[in-house]
Design goal:
single chain; about 450 residues; Proton glutamate symport protein
Length: about 450
């Protein structure tokens, strides 16, 4: 294996399944919301169809991440050529996350959605709840509020101190980030969809293979052929996407409508909801496209349109990890080389959480504006920015993981944790928008890093 694996193929800017699938998904989302508004209980009963589609996507995530990352590294031809694109990817992730946090802080300070928008009765009720709850109570509350299982929430908060007197802080984030890089059992990590240690192992193993040349030609061929087969499987799953997405969206919106309090709560914190959407919109339609254009000198909105199937899937599933197979497929169909997408996108789905970082910064300042007697100065907001950036990188690619890391952001500047109840009612909907921004950020990252890839030796 003296030559690199030829992973680049003739590219096309067309949608991977044609425009009909994009239109079908759009129609499915609109029809699902309409059904949820007209017949919420019927819509909520469709959850089984959505769950089946979501499980089909998640089923393929771990093997696809393993093979795609390895193919991306093998495509370099020599592990020593990984340094520049690797540094570019990490630099891009950090830079865009910081920019997202800055956008969130600016927007929330200009709009000030928490000033005079929440009635005193609601605040009094919040203040009667326990403050500084122990780990078990926090995990149980978040599980009930977010719809995640106790084990999922507990897994993300694995190193949260168990007592009331010790609160999680930046040290907890760094410790979690370090421990997330490696695992003592790769099989368990795969079973729990913990992608970061799998990616680290795949990079190291593939890097070793590039030094062994013809000795491992059978293994490298098997990896590339398996990856190609998995991508074909993704294409097969996507033919069922309109039905699965219809069920997913209808069930979640129907559940919120059937509850009867969603519209009322949305009206009370509508300014907060709109502020976060404004920040996400600025980052998605201005910041990321500007980076794309500056690096590639191409139309970023045409690229966004090419990524529409992945973005719609991200909105429907609210999970970067579940959307990963579609993001890979759409990025390649949009003209980005396989070497870049296979290396950058899986890593981005794990640590590149622009939307989550923006949301956490905005939500923390909103809570500070609502809470009586609290006024965060400039340096405290800098602490919020730094903590939100680190917490977003450490957030899991599961629905509403931002709620979990929000605890650490609030604690960093001494904000009351019980005020999180103000944002729980609309978080599931905001989660869909910020996940969409996360996925677009991953796709832009693949396009940007492609410019740093070494030439393939003939």
């Amino acid at each position: 294996m003296s030559d690199p694996i030829p992973t680049d193929e003739p590219q096309s800017t067309k949608q991977p399944h044609g425009n009909w699938l994009t239109y079908a998904i759009c129609v499915a989302i609109v029809a699902a919301i309409a059904l949820a508004l007209l017949a919420p209980h019927l819509a909520a009963s469709l959850h089984i169809g959505g769950e089946l589609f979501l499980r089909m996507l998640k089923m393929i995530v771990v093997p696809l991440v393993f093979t795609s990352v390895m193919c991306g590294v093998l495509g370099m031809g020599d592990v020593r050529k990984l340094g520049r694109p690797g540094a570019a990817a990490i630099g891009y992730y950090i830079a865009t996350t910081i920019l997202a946090v800055i956008v969130g802080l600016v927007v929330v300070n200009v709009v000030q959605p928490g000033v005079g928008t929440v009635d005193q009765a609601t605040l009094d009720q919040m203040q009667t709840e326990d403050r500084g709850s122990p780990k078990s109570k926090i995990i149980k509350t978040l599980a009930e509020s977010s719809g995640l299982s106790v084990s999922e929430v507990g897994g993300v908060l694995e190193n949260l101190p168990p007592g009331e007197s010790v609160q999680p802080g930046i040290g907890t984030i760094f410790e979690n980030l370090m421990l997330m890089l490696v695992t003592d059992n790769l099989i368990v990590s795969a079973a729990n969809t913990q992608l970061l240690p799998i990616i680290v192992f795949a990079i190291m193993f593939a890097g070793m293979l590039t030094t062994m040349h013809d000795e491992v030609s059978v293994i490298t061929t098997l990896i590339t052929q398996t990856n190609a087969a998995l991508m074909k499987f993704v294409m097969l799953i996507m033919y069922f996407a309109p039905i699965g997405i219809f069920c997913l969206v209808a069930a979640r919106f129907g559940e919120a409508q059937a509850n009867g309090q969603f519209i009322q709560e949305l009206s009370q914190i509508g300014w907060y909801f709109g502020t976060v959407l404004l920040g996400l919109g600025i980052h998605a339609f201005i910041t990321l496209p500007a980076i794309f254009y500056l690096i590639r000198r191409e139309n970023p909105y045409r690229y966004m349109l090419a990524m529409s199937q992945a973005l719609l899937t991200a909105f429907s599933t609210a999970s970067s990890s579940a959307t990963l197979p579609v993001t890979l497929e759409c990025s390649e169909a949009a003209g980005i080389s396989k070497r870049s997408t296979e290396f950058v996108v899986p890593l981005g789905a794990t640590i590149n959480m622009d939307g989550t970082a923006l949301y956490e910064a905005a939500a923390a300042i909103f809570i500070a504006q609502v809470a009586p007697g609290i006024d965060l100065d400039f340096w405290q907001q800098v602490v919020v920015a730094v903590t939100a950036t680190l917490a977003a990188i450490g957030a899991a690619g599961i629905p509403e993981a931002g709620l979990v890391t929000m605890l650490i952001v609030l604690n960093a500047v001494g904000l009351p944790l019980e005020y999180m109840g103000l944002i729980l009612s609309v978080d599931w909907l905001l989660d869909r928008f910020r996940t969409t921004v996360n996925v677009f950020g991953d796709a832009v990252g693949a396009a940007v890093v492609e410019k740093t890839l070494p030439e393939i030796d003939n």
